[in-house]
Amino acid sequence: MDIKVKINNIHGSQMAAKITGNFTIDEHSFRFTAIAFGRIGGQNIGAKLSKATEKELTSLGYDVDEVIMNLQNNLLHGNLSLPEGLKRESFVDD
Q1: Per-position DSSP letters for 65-94, written without gaps between them
Q2: pLDDT of 94
Q3: How far apart are the first and last CA of the chain?
Q4: Which residues of 7-40 are buried (b: 16+ CB within 10 A; e: fewer)?
């Protein structure tokens, strides 16, 4: 599954941040929110989709759990695009 992730905004710090953005699968675009936690126990990201988005994904034949897993994996590994002026160093621990 090829998911392209675009971050719209990040609020928070390296310890915890709220992320908003959208992702694209096969030319279909969807919004998401996520919470990123760092430090104790390592980096972790929990992505959430609206019920309407989940319903639309299902109607298009996608497995919602697989989509969320792929989305979280892309976020965790930095496979994403950022808005101009936002740098990874502002919210990622190296």
Answers
A1: HHHHHHHHHHHHTT-SB--TT--GGGT---
A2: 45
A3: 28
A4: beebeeebeebebebebebeeeebebebebbbee
The pLDDT assigned to 30 comes to: 98
**pLDDT-wise least confident of 75-79, 83-87, 90-94:** 90-94
Q: Tell me what pLDDT residue 41 has.
A: 61
CB–CB of 67/1 below 8 Å?
Answer: yes
Q: What is the dihedral of CA 76, 63, 60, 54, to 10 degrees?
A: -70
How far, in Å, CA of 47 to CA of 2, rounded?
17
> What mean pLDDT do residues 57-86 have?
91
Element (H, E) at 51: helix 51-59
